[in-house]
Each structure stands twice: as structure tokens, then as C-alpha cells.
Amino acid sequence: MEPSYLRLAQTGELADRAREAVTRLAHCELCPRRCRVDRLADARGFCRVGRQAQVASFNLHFGEEEVLVGEGGSGTIFFAGCNLGCVFCQNWDISHDSRLEWEVEAGELAAMMLELQDMGAANINLVTPSHVVPQILEALVLAAQGGLRLPLVYNTGGYDAPETLELMDGVVDIHMPDVKMADPDAAATYLLARDYPERAQEAVRRMHAQVGDLVVDQGGLALRGLLVRHLVMPGGLAGTAEWMRFLAREISPDTWINIMDQYRPCGQAGNHPAIARPVEAGEYRQALGLAREAGIQRIDRRSGHFFARILKHVGLTGPGGP
User: Fold this and answer.
1) In whole angstroms, what is the distance from residue 168 CA to residue 293 CA?
2) Do residues 248 and 295 lie in contact, with contact meaning Cβ atoms separated by under 8 Å?
3) Residue 273: is it exposed, middle or buried by C-beta count within 10 angstroms (0-12/13-18/19+)?
4) What residues contact 185, with CB distance under 8 A and at least 6 apart?
5) Beta carbons of 92 and 105 less than 8 angstroms apart
6) Residue 86 to residue 309: CA distance in whole angstroms
């Protein structure tokens, strides 16, 4: 399956979208924050990123979902800055600390994509891209001209503006939002974004409309579609029940979901007693059960295997895997 963006590159539409996206930096409303600062003049809003994208690292990543890793690893590009303010961020040094980031122009970012392809990456995995979509599109034009042929993964926190997602329609092959809080009060406290639940649900709807359910090849490698991540939080603060019902009923019961158990207190989590501890086994067990009760049919292998062991232990049948 040919990556979607190649068709747009051949017609010139990809270059047109890149130019349009860059003009929007002059009065930036790329994300729901709508800071309206002039990033073309290097002004900086909530995300703390100006005209050029800032990259913390790029490498082959073997810790992603199996459907993204393949044999060569996922070609991750970690962008610095973020349009969310998660107090528990596990990449705090990247999203909140400017000391480790460096600015890259379009040609440099394109070269990273091509280098990852030469290294054998299964895809180009754009980590935290919401605030740098124009810069990504600029680089992608050059990378496509240079021979890039890998699927693009839009690896986002889910706080995306619909107008920006429209720019990525036909560009992104795999949308991978990490859906977080379902309650506005919790979102305001822990993400610094009260409107997160509403915005993230709208974003997931648009993502699914663009790419559909996840399609994998015969070797189990993702080609196109929606892959949703959900990090289980202490005390049910992630709103797992609400998110699973939303995904099963309003998106698709065949949505591929990775229910993650690796929460640990990071960043400023220690200042918030409710999240100043790891997730307990029983909480993770409950989250997996909520996914099945909601009707989710495709649970990522790592969470699915753990779920099967738990159910076997309590004498129930296992889940239907992906």
C-alpha cells in the first residue's frame, strides 16, 4: 500500500498545503489553545515553539506497539514543546524543558526522515506533532522529493484542532491519539485544558473518518488506520469507562486500542496526591475489563496478553485479540 502523501506530492497539493499551513503561523490557531501569536516572527505561545520545529531526538524505536515496530523499528521523531500541560508528563524534559531541544529547518527535518528510512524504519513516527504541522508538511515535501516511501504516524496527545487535522487528510496513514481525561475538571487540573475531552473526541472522530479502522499486512505491520492509546491513571482519573464506551459506540468496536499500564509519577505529579503513586494491578485489571464490557474487539497484543492471563486466573474466558 503506497503512503497517502505520495499522491498529494505528485499533484502538487502537498506543497500547496505546506504553504497554506505556514501562513497560519502568522496568527497561530493550529491547536485548540488558539494563542494567535505571530510564530513567523518567532513569537511563542503555550507550546513554546516559534517558526522552526524543535526536535529532541530521532531514532529507531523498538518499544512502540508491535504493529508499528516490525523488524526495523518505528522511526520516531520526538518534537519538543507541547500544546498540553500534563502535570504528570513522562517526557517532561522534552515538553517543558528547552535545554535539550534544537531547532531544525525543513531540509534538516526531511533529512531525518530519509535517514530513518535508510536505517530500516517501518514508518516515520511523528511524536507530539500538533503544534508543528506546518513544519512537518514543509519537510515532507522535500522528503518525498528525496525518495521517502514510508507510512506516516501522527502520534498525538489528542488535543488537535479540526482545521489542522484537515491539512493532514490524505497525508497521514496512521493516526495514533493518546486519549487522556474524560472529565473536564480532571482535564483542567492535570492537563491544563478543561476542553480536552470535547476536543479529543472531535479529533478522534475526524481521524477515523480520514483513515478508518487499522489495517495490517500479512506480517502484522500497520499500513493505515486508527490506533488509540489510553494510559490508565490512579483512581480511574483517566476516564477509562467513558473513553471505551465512546470508542466502541461512536467510532468503531474494531478500533485498535493499546491500554497502557506504565503510569508512574513524573513531572509535577508529586504535587497532586491523587496521582502521586503508580497504577495498581487491580486498577489496570478493571480498565481492561471496561474495554471488553464496552464492546472493544481489538486490544493491542501487549495489553491483551496481560488481560488473558488475568481472566484465566479468575476463571473467565480471554478477550478476542486483534
Assistant:
1) 33
2) yes
3) exposed
4) 194
5) no
6) 32
**What whole-number distance in Å separates Cα of residue 4 and Cα of residue 151?**
8
Whether the model clears a pTM of 0.90, i.e. scores above it, the answer is yes
Tens digit of each residue's pLDDT (9 = 90 or more) over 79-127: 999 999 999 998 777 776 655 458 999 999 999 999 999 999 999 999 9
Rounded Cα–Cα distance for residues 83 and 164 (Å): 13
Nearest to 54, CA basis, from 79, 29, 85, 18: 79
User: Per the structure block, which three cell numbers stand in for 120?
Assistant: 530500516
Percentages helix, strand, coil for the chain (3-state, rounded to 5) are 45, 15, 40
* 318 within 8 A of 311, measured Cβ to Cβ: yes
127 close to 78: Cβ distance less than 8 angstroms: yes
Q: Among 233, 240, 221, which Cα is nearest to 173's?
A: 221
> For residues 150 and 117, is the Cβ–Cβ distance under 8 A?
yes
Q: In this structure, are residues 266 and 90 in contact, taking their beta carbons and an 8 Å threshold?
A: yes
